[in-house]
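Budget justification note: compute hours in this period were largely spent on complex prediction jobs such as the one shown. Inputs:
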Amino acid sequence: MASVGGFDEAVRDFLRVPTNAHIKNLASVYIANELAPIPLAAQLMGANPELMAAMAQEIESRGAHRIDLNCGCPSNTVTGKGAGSSLLQVPEFLHQIAKAMVKAVSIPVTIKMRSGYEDISLFKENLLAAQESGAHYITLHPRTKVDGYTPPARWDLIAEAKKILRIPLVGNGDILTVEDALKMLAMTHCDALMIGRGSIINPFIFHQIRAHFSKKPFRAEWQDLLNYFEVFLADVPPEVPVKVRISKLKQLMGFLFKGNARLLEKRQEILTAQPVDVQSYLDFALPLLKQGWVF
Ligand SMILES: Cc1cc2nc3c(=O)[nH]c(=O)nc-3n(C[C@H](O)[C@H](O)[C@H](O)COP(=O)(O)O)c2cc1C
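Corresponding output:
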């Protein structure tokens, strides 16, 4: 039986470090061994170099193997406070924050960035500012803040970044299949891949990519997908109200039903259903998923 996994490491969603941050309280949501044996990095988002450095130290003391700096979040709430993708507007500031974090810890600091804020006019400057800060590698999601998630991600910019940088580069954006992964590697020569939404649409994508390179066959079965739901639901704390539990499950189903044209046809139906509890939603959605899923 196959389990979800197959990736080398994962990164926790961003931890905001606001100006009134109580470092220890905020950091307590990060649990380094949550996915053990797979390492889980922490990601920090903020715009105050001293606080970001202090938080980086706190996260290191909690066992992180790597800390990532968020220079990509497009949310206006975040950018209004000068954090996330806002840092791409002033490369010197990006450099200052990243350097403060690098100096504060002994573990690798890495940077996740978009290609720019409004446009890509500071693309090269931002890459170099990130590199010169002492960051170990950069992950590039090649869309600007203004692009949001509008397709396509500009893989040509990953290829360009690879030529500019001497530190490793991780390519990210719109990898939905093994073929996409191979295409990005061939087109950009990036050093590694990061997959976000594609891994929710197809939780077995990492195993499938590995199977391609190892030439060992990989096969998932329906039971594997059922196990995936079990793990997902077990991860939602018991105090979470049923309504919220259902909405989380709907969100997951929304991704899974993007997997192919047959599932896409049913997506609206599973998103607009009004179940009374989790079990009745599963009883409704799982048979539809089973009919359309291709292993
Ligand atoms: C719901 C959602 C949450 C995200 N949260 C984060 C985050 O916390 N930190 C981050 O760097 N990127 C975050 N991203 C962006 C992804 O890491 C990734 O760069 C983007 O989705 C493009 O890659 P993909 O096409 O493989 O999904 C998020 C994206 C989505 C859709």
